[in-house]
Design a protein that fits this description.
Elements lengths: L5 H48 L3 E2 L4 E2 L4 E2 L1 H10 L3 E5 L3 E2 L2 E2 L1 H15 L6 E4 L10 H10 L8 E4 L5 H10 L5 E6 L4 H11 L2 E6 L8 H22 L1
Parallel strand pairs: 1-10, 4-7, 4-9, 7-8, 9-10
Antiparallel strand pairs: 2-3, 5-6
C-alpha cells in the first residue's frame, strides 16, 4: 500500500519555522519587561531622592544669588542651620576659566559665605591630574570676582565626584553641617548622600541662567542616582 507522508513533512517544516519566531518573540518580551522594570526602578529611586531633599533644598526663588535676595523663611532657616562651611561642588572648567555651571556655583557659594551663613567656604573639585584643574579657577574667581579672601577658603583637590566630595568634607575636613551649592537637578542626590553618610546638609540652587547642557545633564542624573543608591547600600 502507498503511504503519503507529504502532510507530515509540511507540518514538520511549519514547526521548524515557528520555533525560531517564537523564541524571538519570547526574547523580545523578556527584554521589554526588563526595560520596564529598569524604568520603574529609576523613577522610584529618583522620587525617593527628591522626597528626601524636599525640605532641605532652597531654590532660586528662595535664595537669589543674582540679586542678593532671600525669602524671609530661607534666611531664617539658613541662619538657624549654623553651617560650618559652604560646600561648592566642582564642575567642568574651560582651561583656566570656570564653565557657566561652575561659575554660578562659585557666585552662589561666595555670596552665602559673605552674607555670613557659614564660617568658611570649601571648594571641592577634581585636580587629581596635572593637566586638569578645577580648583584654581574656582578659587581665583571667588577671590578676584567675588571678594572672598583666599585664606578663608578650604581647598579639596580630590573631590572627584559628589560622593567623594561629601565624605571628604566630613572625614578629612571635620565638617558636621554644610550648605551644599550646586544646580537644582543635582542637589537631591547630594543631599541624599549627605544624609546617608551622617553629614547634616541643606542645599542651595545655583541656577542663575539657562544651560545648553541641561537636557543631557538631566538624563545623566537619573543614571547617577541609581548608581549612587546601590553604592550607598553596598557601603552600609
Amino acid at each position: 500500500m502507498y503511504k503519503n507522508t507529504s502532510g507530515k513533512h509540511v507540518g514538520e517544516c511549519r514547526i521548524n519555522i515557528l520555533r525560531p519566531r517564537a523564541c524571538f518573540l519570547m526574547l523580545l518580551a523578556a527584554f521589554a519587561a526588563l526595560v520596564c522594570a529598569a524604568a520603574v526602578l529609576t523613577v522610584s529611586i529618583s522620587a525617593a531622592f527628591r522626597i528626601s531633599a524636599s525640605d532641605r533644598l532652597y531654590t532660586c526663588g528662595q535664595v537669589d544669588a543674582s540679586s542678593d535676595e532671600y525669602s524671609e523663611s530661607a534666611r531664617e532657616r539658613l541662619e538657624a542651620f549654623d553651617a560650618d562651611a559652604v560646600l561648592v561642588l566642582g564642575a567642568m572648567v574651560w582651561g583656566d576659566r570656570p564653565s557657566y555651571v561652575l561659575e554660578d556655583r562659585i557666585i552662589t557659594g561666595s555670596k552665602l559665605y559673605l552674607d555670613g551663613f557659614a564660617d568658611a567656604i570649601l571648594m571641592s573639585g577634581d585636580n587629581q591630574c596635572e593637566d586638569y584643574n578645577e580648583l584654581d579657577p574656582m578659587m581665583n574667581y571667588a577671590e578676584s570676582k567675588m571678594g572672598v579672601p583666599r585664606d578663608c577658603m578650604l581647598c579639596d583637590r580630590l573631590g572627584l565626584d559628589t560622593y567623594t566630595s561629601l565624605i571628604r568634607a566630613k572625614e578629612q575636613y571635620g565638617l558636621e553641617r554644610v550648605i551644599i551649592v550646586s544646580q537644582e537637578f543635582h542637589l537631591p542626590r547630594a543631599l541624599y548622600i549627605a544624609d546617608k553618610i551622617g553629614l547634616e546638609a541643606v542645599g542651595v540652587s545655583a541656577d542663575l541662567r539657562p544651560y545648553g547642557s541641561a537636557p543631557k545633564s538631566a538624563v545623566r542624573e537619573y543614571a547617577a542616582r541609581v548608581k549612587e543608591f546601590f553604592k550607598l547600600i553596598q557601603e552600609q
